[in-house]
Amino acid sequence: MANEGAWERVLPGVWCMRVPYPNVLPYGTVNLYVIQGGSEAVIVDGGATGEHLALLVERLREMGIRRVTGVLATHYHVDHTAGIPELKARLEAAAFMHPLDIPAFDVHFPHAAGTFEPCPERLRAGDREICVIHQPGHTHGHLHLWLPDAKALLVGDHLVDEGSVWVGPPDGHMADYYRALDAVMQAGADVALPGHGPVIWRPARSAERLRARRQMREDQIVAILAEGPKTLAELTAALYPDVDPRAVPFARHTVIAHLERLEEQGIVRKAMSAADWIMRYARSEE
Predict the structure, then answer these.
(1) pLDDT tens for residues 191-221?
(2) Domain named Metallo-beta-lactamase: which ranges (predicted)?
């Protein structure tokens, strides 16, 4: 389902465009959502550029949408924002992002600085209400969106149907991500619409699976450190022995995020060796 086509109705009045992004593993696509309420719409995430952006504008016209009340980015990463500056101009729509992510966008994409304004707590598309929820984890300003009429939660890069998601500094914080997963489990959502991959029909179960996976990684780290102090490179190699080479930087940053959380809990400590000036991690009791 994840790569069956560029345009799909995923819920009544909610459409998804799957935009190719080959370096985004494992799906190779990023999702752009259109939430329609009569002749109005809200667009969520804007990775579409070039021919995909043109297709999006054409589809909006075919759907009878005369006004886009806002283009909202769940977070600032390029696969979710690349097309938003042009979309904003072509549709004469406001572009929104959480204020904690706006400075990061402006620094990383100086040619488009000033594109975004702080997101409101609610958006509307016709008679549809969309609640905007600050839910950090993947980035400091990451957002979830709640559609009350559909009991649907748009979760950005916090949830996927298969595999796992990347949480790594300086953007990501693992303790926040645990809280984000807890929030999904408590949201009472019937369905989650993720930033990548297919619709998730049991979001609480998916969040529970990802939480257990993250806890498993931390248990593995503690077990590896029981053998003695380890460098970041050694821990990454032990935890991800068969990782795709393209994903090594993401794996490394995920390990850092786990180590930061374990340090915050007092389970792990780090120290620089005077012998070789290499940072190593160890269990705190050692």
Answers:
(1) 999 999 999 999 999 999 999 999 999 999 9
(2) 29-196
Q: Which of 214, 256, 250 is closest to 231 using CA atoms?
A: 256
Which residues, 6 or more positions from 108, have their beta carbon under 8 angstroms from its beta carbon? 76, 78
Q: Where are the alpha helices (DSSP H) in 200-247?
A: 203-225, 232-239
**What single letter denotes the amino acid at residue 267?**
I
Query: If phi over 0 gives left and psi between -120 and 50 gives alpha, with beta otherwise, what is residue 154?
Result: beta
Task: Phi first, then psi: give them for residue 154, nearest 5 degrees.
Answer: -90, 120
Residues 6+ apart with CB under 8 A from 151: 188, 189, 190, 191
Whole-angstrom distance, CA of residue 268 vs CA of residue 33: 41
pTM: 0.93
Q: How confident is the model at residue 285 (pLDDT cuts 50, 70, 90)?
A: confident
Number of residues assigned to the chain: 286
Render pLDDT for 57-83 as a digit per residue (tens, 0 to 9): 999 999 999 999 999 999 999 999 999
How far is Cα 136 from Cα 133, in angstroms, rounded to an integer? 10
Neighbours of 219 (CB within 10 A): 10
Give the DSSP H or E segment for 188: none
